[in-house]
Amino acid sequence: MMSSSPPDPNNCFDPRIGLIPVAQAEQALLEQVIPITDTEVVSLPDAVGRVLADPVASTINVPPHANSAMDGYAVHGASLPSSGVREFKVVGTAFAGKPWAHRCQPDEAVQVMTGAMMPQGTDTVVIQEDIRLENEIAVVSAGHKSGQNVRQAGEDLQRDQIAVEAGVWVGAAELGVLASVGVGRVKVIKKPIVAVFSTGDELKNAGEHLPPGAIYDSNRYTLIGLLQRTGLEILNLGIIPDDPVLTKKALSDASEKADLIITSGGVSTGSADFVIHALEELGEISLWRIAIRPGRPFAFGKIKDKLFFGLPGNPVAVMVTFYRLVQPSIRRLMGQSDLNPVPVVKARAITRFRKKPNRSEVYRAILSQDDNGDPVVASTGQQGSGLLSSMSIANCFVLLDDLDTTANPGDMVDVQLFDGLN
Ligand code: AMP
Ligand code: MG
Question: Strand ranges (DSSP E) for 95-181?
Answer without folding.
Answer: 108-112, 124-127, 131-134, 137-141, 150-151, 162-164
